[in-house]
Write a structure and sequence with these properties.
The structure holds two protein chains of two kinds. Chain A is of the alpha/beta class. Chain A has two domains: about 190 residues, Response regulator (Rossmann fold, 3-Layer(aba) Sandwich); about 120 residues, Rossmann fold (3-Layer(aba) Sandwich), CATH 3.40.50.2300. Chain A contains 13 helices and 14 strands. In chain A, strands 7, 8, 9, 10, 11, 12, 13 and 14 form an eight-stranded mixed sheet that branches. Chain A has a six-stranded mixed sheet with strand order 2-3-1-4-5-6, with helices on both faces. In chain A, a hairpin with a 2-residue loop joins strand 2 and strand 3. In chain A, about 55% of the residues are buried. In chain B, about 80% of the residues lie in helices and about 5% in strands. Chain B has a two-stranded antiparallel ribbon. In chain B, strand 1 and strand 2 form a beta hairpin. The mean pLDDT of chain B is about 90. The chains are: A alpha/beta, B mainly alpha. The interface between A and B is large, with 35 and 40 residues.
């Protein structure tokens, strides 16, 4: 009996050994090949770009896509000598769709970088799958406070700002203009909450009222505007990105408040909304990290190139997308196309050795830019159009307040 | 404070009346033709686009608005004739699928024709200012005009439905469609007329909302949900129900946004009150709907015989 039992065991063992041997033999050339690939530059750099290409804010997605294409043109469609391919995905401005498209980019397209994201709530939903797969994620717009603080990641970089920063610029602007009583209105989602918090951190006066509107489907602000009139503030701050900015400013002017109570805003007036806002955006106070007239060579090349290629003035969304692509290019060039070496890539991205449209560009410890915040205004151009110009610097080399909470 | 309450009531009334114009068309089509038309919001959007284009062409807000109405109606009739007619006999799920497809179709059509950037409708100087409706209460003239136009339309619809032969057929159709057909009424023609009327109302709502909320792709999609709430509260097929429910929804929503934070703030701490008020004010309308459905499952003013 024992022999009968041991015989199959020994054969089983020998079979397993031979299988292991065979597997090792089979695997070794593969392993060699894999090691080879790790040392060799990649044959192609694949970037997934997620933005909003349908719905009422499709114009911004298109604007960002245009900027990416321009950046690729300026790079000769190569990064560190390696051809680049960008896969665009439409998030429909919905967190769940953004997440799904991001996962598709990671799993099916196997992209080396993920970039884009206009909306903070979409980015927050898509964030984990990307950084968990050790893929570098470059935000070209959204900069939610969560990702700047506790949830920061070695794999996440913002080519834009931390949400609070331009709003803090508005808070300081309110102080500079001598406003004592401010009324705050912003949409009730991640970026809107960051917005009012940003204003409050620097504004020294009293907040006499605050409304958080239903996002994204509230388009009529009559109730809020009536409350503003009744509260009699000497400054109104709003944050209504994209289409909502047109609606709020138009309704504010229709209610006759524009001439009585100065309007302060961030992210609410840009090249796309200006086409519809026109006069209602004149004589309002704006704060932003970038303007089309910033006097840097890279910025002029970008703005002129954009106007020539796409026939339009770029928005800040576009400027940040252009920077995001150039940031990636600087990383690929510095690592000589060795995309597998994540540590080297992280170092290269942290160094941010590229010509930013915002001039000297530096990341803080949480991979968010340390940036100037400028005051801007709207003016009428000679040909009857409207454009933004920079008036002065409100905050210099400003770092967001969440950076100390980031441990990495 | 009384002035502010009155002002907020006007704001609510104005939103409610815009909702009514949309919901009236929807409830007619739903109640009389038993057709779920998700694309009603697209007709609202196309009406706004027509108005924006015509205002640009004619350089006159009034002329543009007058031209946009028949254009919206024609588009509605054409849609009914081409796409919807074959769906009447199908069940609701098929209709939902088909009309959802129409939403995508119209959104893409608008993007191809008018571009992704949206359009603004400029108001004439006469309507762009404010009027002092009570001492110390200036109100945007245009919003006041919407209230007036909405009330006029409601009156017109009431007369049409209650006092004319067409209205009688509409009411009969809402109660018993088959019987109306059996009595020798050309039901196809009636349906086309009803659909055209609904489309014209949607276009009117769109062109009136345009100067306030700008004309953009998908502008009807969000409003549509609220419209369904309105017709469920009001009772399917009932114009009167749609009117009462729309004004109720508009006023309740506005009042909630306006005063809930203060009311809750009187017994909660400010940040808690703020969060709770935001959550509650966006739910108010649905709480109202749930309440109405519990007490009156067929809505406030159901069409008789249903």
């Amino acid at each position: 009996m024992p022999s009968a039992r041991t015989a199959p065991v020994t054969t089983a063992i020998s079979r397993r050994v031979s299988m292991l041997l065979g597997a090792a033999l089979l695997a070794s050339p593969l392993a060699l090949a894999a090691m080879d690939a790790a040392a060799q530059p990649a044959k192609k750099v694949k970037i997934g770009f997620v933005t909003t290409l349908s719905g009422p804010n499709a114009a911004y997605g298109q604007d960002m896509k245009n900027a990416v294409e321009l950046a690729l043109d300026h790079l000769g469609r190569k990064m560190g000598g390696i051809p680049v391919e960008v896969v665009y995905e439409d998030d429909e401005q919905k967190p769940e769709v953004g997440k799904q498209k991001t996962e598709k980019l990671l799993q099916r397209d196997k992209v080396d970088f993920v970039a884009g994201y206009i909306w903070s709530n979409v980015l927050l939903a898509s964030y984990k799958p990307v950084v968990d797969s050790n893929t570098f994620l470059i935000s070209a717009n959204a900069g939610p406070s969560q990702l700047a603080g506790e949830q920061c990641s070695p794999y996440f970089f913002a080519a834009s700002w931390q949400n609070d920063q331009p709003h803090m610029g508005v808070g300081e602007l309110l102080n500079q203009k001598g406003a004592k009583r401010a009324y705050l209105v912003a949409p009730n989602y991640a970026a809107g909450q960051d917005g009012v918090n940003g204003v409050k951190t620097l504004f020294k006066g009293e907040v006499v009222g605050q409304d958080m509107t239903k996002w994204p489907d509230q388009l009529d602000f009559s109730a809020e505007i009536s409350k503003i009139r009744a509260a009699k503030p000497d400054g109104v701050y709003v944050f209504f990105p994209g289409r909502w900015g047109v609606q709020f400013l138009t309704q504010y002017a229709q209610a006759g408040l524009k001439k009585d109570i100065p309007l302060y805003s961030a992210f609410t007036v840009d090249a796309v909304t200006l086409k519809l806002q026109k006069d209602v955006a004149l004589d309002t106070y704006l704060a932003m990290t970038w303007g089309p007239d910033l006097p840097f060579a890279a910025n002029q090349k970008f703005v002129d190139g954009f106007k020539k290629k796409h026939g339009d003035t770029p928005t800040f969304y576009a400027s940040q997308s252009y920077d995001a692509i150039n940031l990636i290019a600087s990383g690929v060039a510095a690592t000589k196309g060795n995309l597998k070496d994540k540590a080297a890539m992280r170092k290269a991205l942290e160094a941010a050795k590229f010509d930013s449209v915002r001039g000297p560009f530096k990341f803080g410890n949480n991979h968010f830019p340390i940036s100037n915040i400028y005051q801007q205004e709207v003016y009428k151009t000679a040909d009857g159009g409207y454009d933004l110009r920079t008036i002065n610097t409100v905050l210099t080399a400003h770092q967001d307040l969440h950076a100390p909470k980031c441990k990495m | 404070m009384t002035l502010l309450i009155f002002e907020q009531f006007l704001n609510g009334l104005q939103i409610g009346l815009l909702l009514f114009l949309l919901a009236a068309g929807l409830t007619l089509v739903f109640g009389i033709m038993d057709m779920v038309n998700l694309a009603h919001g697209s007709l609202y959007m196309m009406g706004a686009y027509f108005a924006a284009v015509f205002v640009q062409w004619t350089d006159s807000f009034v002329l543009g608005a007058i031209l946009a109405l028949p254009a919206g109606m024609l588009l509605g009739v054409a849609t009914e004739y081409v796409a919807l007619r074959s769906l009447y006999a199908r069940d609701h799920l098929d209709q939902v699928l088909a009309t959802f497809g129409l939403i995508l179709f119209f959104n893409e059509l608008a993007r191809l024709i008018f571009g992704a950037g949206g359009m603004a409708i400029e108001l004439p100087a006469l309507l762009a200012g404010q009027i002092e409706i009570l001492p110390g209460l200036p109100y945007p003239t245009y919003r006041f005009a919407i209230i007036a136009a909405g009330l006029l339309c409601a009156g017109f619809l009431f007369l049409l439905v209650q006092k004319t032969r067409l209205g009688m057929l509409i009411r009969a159709g809402a109660s018993n469609r088959e019987m109306v057909g059996a009595l020798g009424v050309d039901i196809k023609l009636l349906f086309t007329l009803v659909f055209g009327l609904g489309s014209a109302l949607a276009a009117l709502a769109g062109l009136m909302a345009g100067p306030i909320s700008t004309v953009q792709i998908g502008m009807g999609d969000n409003v549509l949900i609220l419209c369904f709430v309105v017709i469920v509260i009001g009772g399917l097929g009932s114009i009167r129900g749609a009117f009462v429910a729309a004004v109720l929804v508009g006023v309740l929503e506005t009042m909630g946004r306006a005063f809930l934070p203060n009311i809750l703030g009187s017994f909660l701490n400010p940040s808690e009150a703020g969060t709770l008020a935001q959550a509650l004010s966006s739910m108010l309308v649905y709480i109202l709907m749930a309440g109405v459905l519990v007490l009156r499952p067929a809505g406030l003013f159901p069409a008789p015989g249903r």
